[in-house]
Amino acid sequence: MKQNAVEPKREPLIRPRTLKVLMAGFAAVLGALLLVEGWAHRHVIFPWEEWYGFYAAFGFVAYVMLVFVAQYVLRPIVMRDEGYYDR
Amino acid sequence: MIASAVPPGLILILGALPAVLLRGRLRQAWMLALPALSLLNMLALPEGNHFLVPFFRQELVLARVDRLSVVFGIIFHIIAFIANLYALKVEDRFQNAAGLVYAGAAIGAVFAGDLFTLFVFWEMMTLSATFLIMARRTEKSMAAGFRYFMVHVVSGLCLLGGILLQVKSTGTVAFGYIGLGDLSSWLIFVGFGVNSAWPLLHFWLPDAYPESTVTGAVFLSAFTTKTAVYVLARAYPGTEALIWIGAAMTVFPIFFAVIENNLRRVLSYSLINQVGFMMVGIGIGTELSLNGTVSHAFSHILYKALLFMSMGAVLHQTGKINATDVGGLYRSMPWTTAFCIVGAASISAFPLFSGFVSKSMVMEAAALGDLRLVWFLMLFASAGVLHHAGIKIPFCAFFSHDSGIRCKEAPPNMLAAMGLTAALCVGIGVYPQPLYSLLPYPTDFQPYTAGHVISQAQLLLFAALAFALMLLSGTHPPEIRAINLDVDVLTRKGGRAFYRLADRSLNALNAWADEVVSHRLTRRLALFFQRPECSLQRLAFRALAPLVGNPAWMREQLCLAEARCEHGAHPVGVGVLRAVVLLAVLTILVLFW
After folding, report:
1. Which of B292, B325, B438, B549 is the most exposed place for a label (fewest CB within 10 A)?
2. Which of A55, A78, A79 to mutate: most B Cβ within 10 Å?
3. What was the ipTM of the complex prediction?
């Protein structure tokens, strides 16, 4: 794309290297969270809370389910163009 | 002996008048001093009922002070101060006054000890909130404000009907525990329910709030729904229906929030989701769950206002709020970005942020009550909150793609308001004891156990991992420039259909009546009275024609009669008869009248 003179200079929002460092740090935190679960003494109410990594798995699956249901089930039903109510 | 001079709420409501008259720095100082003054006035009240006003053999209680009303009073004052600080530069008499009256009415409603006072403040809130929406003065906001007003007038009537029936059956206007029973209790329940945005009755909220002014949304996000939470906690604790209503509220809005493009509308859906947790807490009705509801309302008001302020700042600085239009603003607005992230972390209930210390109480109360399905729904909703409020809001506005917008950072007063709120969010998260000490029931709840922290961190961070993986792999749904239908399609399109039906039926009736009465009938009458005798005789001939059976002769007689009328050449007897009748009528009139 040809850069317009008035248009401000566009840098990438996040440099690829920074992104890599961030993702590595994120992965480290996730790993640590899974590891620390084995040591910590937890007080649980429901039996499934004791399954190893229950919350991690639930969070991941819930998130994916939410996004896919919203995108592929809800969106086709309710999405309209922006002028829908003006007609 | 009462130390405070006026009932809580009235200071803000009455203070709106000087706020309208003052200008410039004087007004700004007044707007900031007023909530502080009002808070001191409120805190000076000891527990108990104050400001009792006799009213039709009943007693109105303008200030019922107990632990439940005080904690709501405190947070309402805090947020009124913050919202006024955020709106400090708004030189708009409408908004300045409406904001103060709205906050004052909400405080008045919270301290109302009787149903009548509650209703008056309740309606005052409706009216002032409508002004906060319409004050944006766009066609859309006018329409949305009107729809907001209509919905709340209907719910207000429902509430009023319930109150009247309730007063009639119980004989008292006192406002306390009601519980579901007869018709009156249901009417009041539903009246409260509309304001707490129950499923299917929620549509006014995502319709109206995003159309309000930049600063109005901050006020709106705090008062209407949380006043409803307060009255439900007061009148319907332990009502099982609320558990299921609340569970539905936590889940369904998050799907809408995922696909919504207008970021302030995303926040509106997320508001419903958060109020859902409070409803569940009220429905469970244990001390722990009610404490959870109140503390969650307290922290929710702060972080929701913070998120609305940050999105308001984006709208204020760029004029845009759709996810497809903004993005990459973190370089232009670094402070707003930071404050928004604090709000996002708080609403997502990350450990060390305010949502964590309050939501875990409701979750634990549900678990202790063995409400397995509700617990799972709320856990699902907790992961969902992370998506739309925790990630989508800051990500779409400040990161995502570079929209090319280069704007200035938000003005200092907005930053100060956001900074103060962010500090409170972190403060409550790190050191929740002061908040816990304000709750209605004494509690030794420990949010920071290893179990709580690890499970919540796992839930959120692995959900965030899902986001990161979907984003990097390109499977994350894109933001689309579109709107999404909600229940209000029924009222909005239904309203139009009703309009058309009324237009076709009533206007057609009107046109028919116009044609018949003012055109045909008048013309006929005019023609008739041009020559009344002639017309009368013609009518008589027509009526008699079939009897006589000689049409030719009849026609001849008719022509003769018409000719006589035209020339006034009647037989003498007819003229005399007319004169006699006229004289007789005159005599009767003179003699007997």
Report:
1. B549
2. A55
3. 0.86
